[in-house]
Amino acid sequence: MAGSDFSRAFLNQVELGRAQPSTHTLQIIARRLQQPVDYFLEGPEVSAAAVELTLAEAEVRLHQGDDGGAEALVKSVLRREVPTMVRTRAQMILAGALIRRGSADQAMPVLAEAIATADKAGWTALLVELYDWQGRAYYVMRRAHEAGRCFDQAFALYQEAKLRDPLLKARILGHRANLHYVAGQPEDAIAAYSDAIAAAEQILDLPALAGIYEGLALSFQQTGQYPRALSYAQKSLRIFETLQDVRMTGQLRLNMADMLLQQGRAAEAETVFSEGAAQLRRVGDRELLPMLVSGTAESALEVGAIERAGSLSDEALDLAEGSSDPIAAVAVHRVAARVQHAQGRQASSHRHFERALALAAGIDSPELHARVGYDYARALEAEGNSREAAHRFRAAYETGRVVNGSRQSRK
Protein backbone atom coordinates (compact mmCIF):
# COMPACT_ATOMS: atom_id res chain seq x y z
CA MET A 1 0.00 0.00 0.00
CA ALA A 2 2.67 2.50 1.02
CA GLY A 3 4.97 1.79 -1.91
CA SER A 4 7.51 4.55 -2.39
CA ASP A 5 5.05 7.39 -1.71
CA PHE A 6 5.07 7.24 2.11
CA SER A 7 6.37 5.01 4.88
CA ARG A 8 4.73 1.95 6.43
CA ALA A 9 5.08 3.64 9.82
CA PHE A 10 3.07 6.63 8.60
CA LEU A 11 0.37 4.35 7.20
CA ASN A 12 0.22 2.58 10.55
CA GLN A 13 -0.30 5.92 12.31
CA VAL A 14 -3.13 6.72 9.91
CA GLU A 15 -4.78 3.35 10.66
CA LEU A 16 -4.52 4.04 14.41
CA GLY A 17 -6.03 7.49 14.03
CA ARG A 18 -2.85 9.21 15.18
CA ALA A 19 -2.11 10.90 11.85
CA GLN A 20 -4.21 12.28 9.03
CA PRO A 21 -3.15 11.95 5.40
CA SER A 22 -2.85 14.93 3.11
CA THR A 23 -5.24 15.27 0.20
CA HIS A 24 -2.60 13.89 -2.18
CA THR A 25 -1.83 10.90 0.08
CA LEU A 26 -5.53 10.15 0.54
CA GLN A 27 -5.98 10.08 -3.24
CA ILE A 28 -3.12 7.56 -3.53
CA ILE A 29 -4.65 5.32 -0.85
CA ALA A 30 -8.08 5.55 -2.48
CA ARG A 31 -6.67 4.66 -5.90
CA ARG A 32 -4.79 1.61 -4.54
CA LEU A 33 -7.86 0.38 -2.70
CA GLN A 34 -9.96 1.01 -5.81
CA GLN A 35 -12.33 3.21 -3.83
CA PRO A 36 -13.54 6.78 -4.42
CA VAL A 37 -12.13 9.40 -2.06
CA ASP A 38 -15.69 9.90 -0.74
CA TYR A 39 -15.47 6.40 0.78
CA PHE A 40 -13.05 7.70 3.40
CA LEU A 41 -15.05 10.85 4.10
CA GLU A 42 -18.53 9.49 4.70
CA GLY A 43 -18.90 10.79 8.26
CA PRO A 44 -21.37 13.69 8.65
CA GLU A 45 -18.69 15.88 10.20
CA VAL A 46 -16.61 15.73 7.01
CA SER A 47 -19.29 15.41 4.34
CA ALA A 48 -18.42 18.93 3.17
CA ALA A 49 -14.88 17.68 2.61
CA ALA A 50 -16.13 15.09 0.13
CA VAL A 51 -17.97 17.79 -1.80
CA GLU A 52 -14.89 20.03 -1.83
CA LEU A 53 -12.71 17.23 -3.12
CA THR A 54 -15.25 16.41 -5.83
CA LEU A 55 -15.27 20.04 -6.97
CA ALA A 56 -11.47 20.14 -6.89
CA GLU A 57 -11.29 17.03 -9.07
CA ALA A 58 -13.88 18.54 -11.43
CA GLU A 59 -11.75 21.67 -11.81
CA VAL A 60 -8.65 19.60 -12.45
CA ARG A 61 -10.46 17.63 -15.16
CA LEU A 62 -11.80 20.82 -16.70
CA HIS A 63 -8.32 22.28 -16.99
CA GLN A 64 -6.95 18.97 -18.31
CA GLY A 65 -9.48 19.14 -21.12
CA ASP A 66 -11.74 16.37 -19.78
CA ASP A 67 -14.93 18.44 -20.13
CA GLY A 68 -17.22 15.42 -19.96
CA GLY A 69 -15.60 14.17 -16.76
CA ALA A 70 -15.81 17.62 -15.16
CA GLU A 71 -19.46 17.97 -16.14
CA ALA A 72 -20.38 14.57 -14.66
CA LEU A 73 -18.65 15.32 -11.35
CA VAL A 74 -20.26 18.75 -11.01
CA LYS A 75 -23.71 17.40 -11.77
CA SER A 76 -23.22 14.83 -9.00
CA VAL A 77 -22.58 17.75 -6.61
CA LEU A 78 -25.57 19.72 -7.86
CA ARG A 79 -27.84 16.73 -7.14
CA ARG A 80 -26.95 17.00 -3.44
CA GLU A 81 -28.13 19.40 -0.76
CA VAL A 82 -25.10 21.68 -0.60
CA PRO A 83 -24.43 25.20 0.73
CA THR A 84 -25.33 28.03 -1.63
CA MET A 85 -21.73 29.06 -2.23
CA VAL A 86 -20.75 25.49 -3.10
CA ARG A 87 -23.69 25.28 -5.51
CA THR A 88 -22.66 28.56 -7.14
CA ARG A 89 -19.07 27.39 -7.58
CA ALA A 90 -20.34 24.12 -9.05
CA GLN A 91 -22.48 26.06 -11.52
CA MET A 92 -19.40 28.02 -12.58
CA ILE A 93 -17.47 24.82 -13.30
CA LEU A 94 -20.47 23.36 -15.15
CA ALA A 95 -20.71 26.50 -17.29
CA GLY A 96 -17.00 26.24 -18.05
CA ALA A 97 -17.40 22.63 -19.19
CA LEU A 98 -20.33 23.59 -21.43
CA ILE A 99 -18.39 26.48 -22.97
CA ARG A 100 -15.37 24.27 -23.60
CA ARG A 101 -17.42 21.72 -25.50
CA GLY A 102 -19.04 24.37 -27.67
CA SER A 103 -22.36 24.80 -25.86
CA ALA A 104 -21.98 28.41 -24.75
CA ASP A 105 -25.71 29.03 -25.24
CA GLN A 106 -26.48 26.35 -22.63
CA ALA A 107 -23.93 27.87 -20.26
CA MET A 108 -25.57 31.32 -20.29
CA PRO A 109 -28.59 30.58 -18.05
CA VAL A 110 -26.36 28.66 -15.63
CA LEU A 111 -24.02 31.65 -15.39
CA ALA A 112 -26.89 34.12 -15.07
CA GLU A 113 -28.25 32.26 -12.03
CA ALA A 114 -24.81 31.93 -10.45
CA ILE A 115 -24.02 35.64 -11.00
CA ALA A 116 -27.32 36.72 -9.45
CA THR A 117 -26.62 34.57 -6.38
CA ALA A 118 -23.01 35.72 -5.97
CA ASP A 119 -23.97 39.37 -6.45
CA LYS A 120 -26.73 39.19 -3.84
CA ALA A 121 -24.45 37.42 -1.35
CA GLY A 122 -21.53 39.81 -1.94
CA TRP A 123 -19.06 37.09 -2.97
CA THR A 124 -16.81 39.42 -4.93
CA ALA A 125 -13.96 37.04 -5.74
CA LEU A 126 -16.37 34.42 -7.07
CA LEU A 127 -18.29 37.10 -8.97
CA VAL A 128 -15.10 38.17 -10.74
CA GLU A 129 -14.56 34.62 -12.01
CA LEU A 130 -18.20 34.31 -13.04
CA TYR A 131 -18.11 37.53 -15.08
CA ASP A 132 -14.93 36.29 -16.76
CA TRP A 133 -16.65 33.03 -17.73
CA GLN A 134 -19.70 34.94 -18.96
CA GLY A 135 -17.43 37.06 -21.12
CA ARG A 136 -15.88 33.91 -22.55
CA ALA A 137 -19.31 32.55 -23.36
CA TYR A 138 -20.22 35.73 -25.24
CA TYR A 139 -16.84 35.66 -26.98
CA VAL A 140 -17.42 32.10 -28.21
CA MET A 141 -20.86 33.21 -29.43
CA ARG A 142 -19.10 36.06 -31.32
CA ARG A 143 -20.88 38.78 -29.34
CA ALA A 144 -17.82 40.94 -28.77
CA HIS A 145 -19.60 43.95 -27.25
CA GLU A 146 -21.24 41.89 -24.50
CA ALA A 147 -18.00 39.97 -23.95
CA GLY A 148 -16.08 43.22 -23.47
CA ARG A 149 -18.64 44.48 -20.99
CA CYS A 150 -18.28 41.30 -18.90
CA PHE A 151 -14.46 41.39 -18.95
CA ASP A 152 -14.52 45.05 -17.94
CA GLN A 153 -16.88 44.26 -15.06
CA ALA A 154 -14.62 41.41 -13.96
CA PHE A 155 -11.50 43.58 -14.00
CA ALA A 156 -13.18 46.53 -12.28
CA LEU A 157 -14.38 44.26 -9.47
CA TYR A 158 -10.94 42.65 -9.22
CA GLN A 159 -9.33 46.04 -8.68
CA GLU A 160 -12.08 47.38 -6.43
CA ALA A 161 -11.81 44.36 -4.11
CA LYS A 162 -7.98 44.57 -4.20
CA LEU A 163 -7.71 40.87 -5.02
CA ARG A 164 -4.27 39.30 -5.20
CA ASP A 165 -4.59 36.45 -7.67
CA PRO A 166 -2.11 37.05 -10.53
CA LEU A 167 -3.42 34.10 -12.54
CA LEU A 168 -7.00 35.37 -12.46
CA LYS A 169 -5.77 38.85 -13.33
CA ALA A 170 -3.76 37.49 -16.25
CA ARG A 171 -6.75 35.54 -17.51
CA ILE A 172 -9.02 38.58 -17.53
CA LEU A 173 -6.40 40.80 -19.16
CA GLY A 174 -5.76 38.15 -21.78
CA HIS A 175 -9.42 37.91 -22.66
CA ARG A 176 -9.71 41.69 -22.95
CA ALA A 177 -6.63 41.66 -25.18
CA ASN A 178 -8.30 39.12 -27.46
CA LEU A 179 -11.12 41.60 -28.04
CA HIS A 180 -8.66 44.32 -29.04
CA TYR A 181 -7.05 41.84 -31.43
CA VAL A 182 -10.24 40.77 -33.20
CA ALA A 183 -11.41 44.40 -33.32
CA GLY A 184 -8.35 45.31 -35.37
CA GLN A 185 -6.61 47.32 -32.64
CA PRO A 186 -3.13 45.73 -32.71
CA GLU A 187 -1.29 48.34 -30.66
CA ASP A 188 -3.85 48.17 -27.86
CA ALA A 189 -3.81 44.38 -28.12
CA ILE A 190 -0.02 44.13 -27.86
CA ALA A 191 -0.02 46.34 -24.76
CA ALA A 192 -2.82 44.30 -23.17
CA TYR A 193 -1.15 40.98 -24.01
CA SER A 194 2.10 42.20 -22.50
CA ASP A 195 0.29 43.12 -19.27
CA ALA A 196 -1.42 39.74 -19.19
CA ILE A 197 1.79 37.78 -19.65
CA ALA A 198 3.55 39.90 -17.02
CA ALA A 199 0.76 39.15 -14.55
CA ALA A 200 0.80 35.41 -15.26
CA GLU A 201 4.55 35.15 -14.95
CA GLN A 202 4.60 36.56 -11.43
CA ILE A 203 4.19 32.91 -10.44
CA LEU A 204 7.51 31.49 -11.62
CA ASP A 205 7.85 28.25 -9.62
CA LEU A 206 4.49 26.51 -9.82
CA PRO A 207 5.57 23.25 -8.11
CA ALA A 208 6.91 25.33 -5.19
CA LEU A 209 3.59 27.17 -4.99
CA ALA A 210 1.72 23.87 -4.85
CA GLY A 211 4.09 22.73 -2.11
CA ILE A 212 3.35 25.86 -0.08
CA TYR A 213 -0.40 25.25 -0.38
CA GLU A 214 0.07 21.63 0.64
CA GLY A 215 2.12 22.72 3.69
CA LEU A 216 -0.59 25.14 4.74
CA ALA A 217 -3.20 22.40 4.32
CA LEU A 218 -1.24 20.06 6.59
CA SER A 219 -0.74 22.79 9.18
CA PHE A 220 -4.42 23.67 9.37
CA GLN A 221 -5.29 19.97 9.39
CA GLN A 222 -3.08 19.39 12.42
CA THR A 223 -4.87 22.16 14.33
CA GLY A 224 -8.29 20.73 13.44
CA GLN A 225 -9.24 23.60 11.11
CA TYR A 226 -10.56 21.35 8.36
CA PRO A 227 -12.39 23.91 6.21
CA ARG A 228 -9.22 26.01 5.88
CA ALA A 229 -7.13 22.88 5.37
CA LEU A 230 -9.40 21.77 2.53
CA SER A 231 -9.30 25.22 1.01
CA TYR A 232 -5.51 25.09 0.73
CA ALA A 233 -5.53 21.45 -0.34
CA GLN A 234 -7.88 22.44 -3.14
CA LYS A 235 -5.47 25.19 -4.21
CA SER A 236 -2.73 22.59 -4.35
CA LEU A 237 -4.84 20.27 -6.46
CA ARG A 238 -5.71 23.13 -8.74
CA ILE A 239 -2.16 23.34 -9.98
CA PHE A 240 -3.66 22.20 -13.28
CA GLU A 241 -5.49 25.49 -13.37
CA THR A 242 -2.12 27.12 -13.75
CA LEU A 243 -1.53 24.78 -16.67
CA GLN A 244 -4.63 26.29 -18.20
CA ASP A 245 -2.93 29.63 -17.77
CA VAL A 246 0.14 28.21 -19.49
CA ARG A 247 -2.15 27.50 -22.42
CA MET A 248 -3.48 31.03 -22.12
CA THR A 249 0.03 32.48 -22.30
CA GLY A 250 0.55 30.25 -25.33
CA GLN A 251 -2.48 31.90 -26.95
CA LEU A 252 -1.15 35.32 -26.03
CA ARG A 253 2.25 34.54 -27.53
CA LEU A 254 0.57 33.25 -30.69
CA ASN A 255 -1.32 36.49 -31.21
CA MET A 256 1.60 38.74 -30.29
CA ALA A 257 3.97 36.86 -32.62
CA ASP A 258 1.43 37.04 -35.43
CA MET A 259 1.30 40.82 -35.01
CA LEU A 260 5.11 41.03 -35.03
CA LEU A 261 5.17 38.93 -38.19
CA GLN A 262 2.67 41.19 -39.92
CA GLN A 263 4.83 44.18 -38.95
CA GLY A 264 7.83 42.57 -40.69
CA ARG A 265 9.63 41.63 -37.47
CA ALA A 266 10.06 37.99 -38.41
CA ALA A 267 13.08 37.16 -36.23
CA GLU A 268 11.32 38.48 -33.11
CA ALA A 269 8.15 36.67 -34.10
CA GLU A 270 9.98 33.36 -34.48
CA THR A 271 11.35 33.66 -30.94
CA VAL A 272 7.90 34.37 -29.48
CA PHE A 273 6.26 31.56 -31.50
CA SER A 274 8.96 29.13 -30.31
CA GLU A 275 8.55 30.11 -26.66
CA GLY A 276 4.80 29.57 -26.85
CA ALA A 277 5.22 26.19 -28.55
CA ALA A 278 7.70 25.09 -25.89
CA GLN A 279 5.21 26.01 -23.16
CA LEU A 280 2.40 24.05 -24.78
CA ARG A 281 4.56 20.98 -25.36
CA ARG A 282 5.27 20.90 -21.63
CA VAL A 283 1.56 20.67 -20.82
CA GLY A 284 0.64 18.31 -23.66
CA ASP A 285 -1.61 20.76 -25.52
CA ARG A 286 -2.96 19.41 -28.81
CA GLU A 287 -5.26 22.22 -29.94
CA LEU A 288 -3.14 25.35 -30.08
CA LEU A 289 0.30 23.83 -30.66
CA PRO A 290 -0.11 23.36 -34.46
CA MET A 291 -0.69 27.10 -34.88
CA LEU A 292 2.43 28.05 -32.93
CA VAL A 293 4.58 25.57 -34.85
CA SER A 294 3.21 26.76 -38.19
CA GLY A 295 3.82 30.34 -37.04
CA THR A 296 7.43 29.44 -36.32
CA ALA A 297 7.63 27.93 -39.81
CA GLU A 298 6.26 31.09 -41.43
CA SER A 299 8.71 33.24 -39.48
CA ALA A 300 11.58 31.03 -40.62
CA LEU A 301 10.33 31.37 -44.19
CA GLU A 302 10.31 35.17 -43.89
CA VAL A 303 13.97 35.23 -42.80
CA GLY A 304 14.93 32.93 -45.70
CA ALA A 305 15.43 29.70 -43.73
CA ILE A 306 13.42 27.59 -46.19
CA GLU A 307 14.72 24.20 -45.04
CA ARG A 308 13.86 24.91 -41.40
CA ALA A 309 10.51 26.29 -42.48
CA GLY A 310 9.76 23.08 -44.39
CA SER A 311 10.59 20.86 -41.44
CA LEU A 312 8.44 22.93 -39.08
CA SER A 313 5.58 23.07 -41.56
CA ASP A 314 5.56 19.27 -41.90
CA GLU A 315 5.50 18.99 -38.10
CA ALA A 316 2.57 21.43 -37.94
CA LEU A 317 0.62 19.40 -40.50
CA ASP A 318 1.13 16.26 -38.42
CA LEU A 319 0.09 18.07 -35.23
CA ALA A 320 -3.03 19.46 -36.89
CA GLU A 321 -4.34 15.90 -37.24
CA GLY A 322 -4.79 15.87 -33.46
CA SER A 323 -6.53 19.25 -33.24
CA SER A 324 -10.26 19.87 -33.55
CA ASP A 325 -9.80 23.61 -34.08
CA PRO A 326 -10.70 24.57 -37.69
CA ILE A 327 -8.78 27.86 -37.36
CA ALA A 328 -5.64 25.85 -36.60
CA ALA A 329 -6.23 23.76 -39.71
CA VAL A 330 -6.59 26.90 -41.85
CA ALA A 331 -3.37 28.36 -40.47
CA VAL A 332 -1.40 25.15 -40.95
CA HIS A 333 -2.50 24.67 -44.57
CA ARG A 334 -1.96 28.35 -45.44
CA VAL A 335 1.61 28.25 -44.15
CA ALA A 336 2.26 24.87 -45.77
CA ALA A 337 1.11 26.36 -49.08
CA ARG A 338 3.52 29.30 -48.71
CA VAL A 339 6.43 27.05 -47.74
CA GLN A 340 5.87 24.57 -50.57
CA HIS A 341 5.57 27.44 -53.03
CA ALA A 342 8.98 28.68 -51.86
CA GLN A 343 10.31 25.14 -52.39
CA GLY A 344 9.07 25.20 -56.00
CA ARG A 345 6.29 22.64 -55.44
CA GLN A 346 3.51 24.61 -57.11
CA ALA A 347 0.89 21.88 -57.43
CA SER A 348 1.19 20.92 -53.78
CA SER A 349 1.14 24.59 -52.81
CA HIS A 350 -2.12 25.14 -54.69
CA ARG A 351 -3.72 22.13 -53.01
CA HIS A 352 -2.89 23.49 -49.59
CA PHE A 353 -4.20 26.95 -50.50
CA GLU A 354 -7.45 25.45 -51.80
CA ARG A 355 -7.78 23.38 -48.64
CA ALA A 356 -7.22 26.45 -46.47
CA LEU A 357 -9.82 28.44 -48.42
CA ALA A 358 -12.36 25.63 -48.13
CA LEU A 359 -11.85 25.42 -44.37
CA ALA A 360 -11.95 29.22 -43.97
CA ALA A 361 -15.28 29.34 -45.79
CA GLY A 362 -16.83 27.42 -42.92
CA ILE A 363 -15.58 29.87 -40.29
CA ASP A 364 -17.21 33.22 -39.54
CA SER A 365 -13.99 35.18 -40.01
CA PRO A 366 -13.76 37.28 -43.20
CA GLU A 367 -10.32 38.50 -42.12
CA LEU A 368 -8.97 34.95 -41.99
CA HIS A 369 -10.46 34.16 -45.41
CA ALA A 370 -8.97 37.36 -46.85
CA ARG A 371 -5.52 36.53 -45.52
CA VAL A 372 -5.51 33.11 -47.19
CA GLY A 373 -6.78 34.62 -50.45
CA TYR A 374 -4.13 37.34 -50.41
CA ASP A 375 -1.30 34.86 -49.85
CA TYR A 376 -2.66 32.68 -52.65
CA ALA A 377 -2.77 35.68 -54.98
CA ARG A 378 0.84 36.58 -54.17
CA ALA A 379 1.93 33.03 -54.97
CA LEU A 380 0.07 33.03 -58.29
CA GLU A 381 1.55 36.40 -59.20
CA ALA A 382 5.05 35.08 -58.51
CA GLU A 383 4.31 32.14 -60.79
CA GLY A 384 3.37 34.51 -63.64
CA ASN A 385 -0.34 33.72 -63.55
CA SER A 386 -1.40 37.37 -63.55
CA ARG A 387 -5.02 36.81 -64.50
CA GLU A 388 -5.78 34.35 -61.73
CA ALA A 389 -3.72 36.42 -59.30
CA ALA A 390 -5.79 39.52 -60.07
CA HIS A 391 -8.97 37.52 -59.45
CA ARG A 392 -7.66 36.31 -56.08
CA PHE A 393 -6.46 39.79 -55.10
CA ARG A 394 -9.90 41.20 -55.92
CA ALA A 395 -11.66 38.53 -53.87
CA ALA A 396 -9.34 39.13 -50.90
CA TYR A 397 -9.89 42.89 -51.22
CA GLU A 398 -13.68 42.53 -51.23
CA THR A 399 -13.53 40.27 -48.20
CA GLY A 400 -11.26 42.77 -46.45
CA ARG A 401 -13.74 45.56 -47.17
CA VAL A 402 -16.34 43.62 -45.19
CA VAL A 403 -13.97 43.53 -42.22
CA ASN A 404 -12.95 47.18 -42.47
CA GLY A 405 -16.53 48.29 -43.01
CA SER A 406 -17.67 46.61 -39.84
CA ARG A 407 -14.81 48.25 -37.93
CA GLN A 408 -15.76 51.69 -39.22
CA SER A 409 -19.39 51.13 -38.23
CA ARG A 410 -18.25 50.21 -34.69
CA LYS A 411 -16.27 53.44 -34.51
Q: Could you give a short description of this structure?
A:
With 411 residues, the protein is mainly α. The chain is built from 20 helices and no strands. It is globular, with a radius of gyration of 25 Å.
What would you say this structure looks like, in words?
- The protein is mainly α.
- It has two domains: 8-237, Alpha Horseshoe (Serine Threonine Protein Phosphatase 5, Tetratricopeptide repeat); 246-363, Serine Threonine Protein Phosphatase 5, Tetratricopeptide repeat, CATH 1.25.40.10.
- It is built from 20 helices and no strands.
- α17 packs parallel to α19.
- The longest helix is centred in the last third of the chain and has 25 residues, at 386-410.
- It is globular and about 85 Å long.
- 41% of the residues are buried.
- Mean pLDDT is 79; it is low at 239-245 and 402-411.
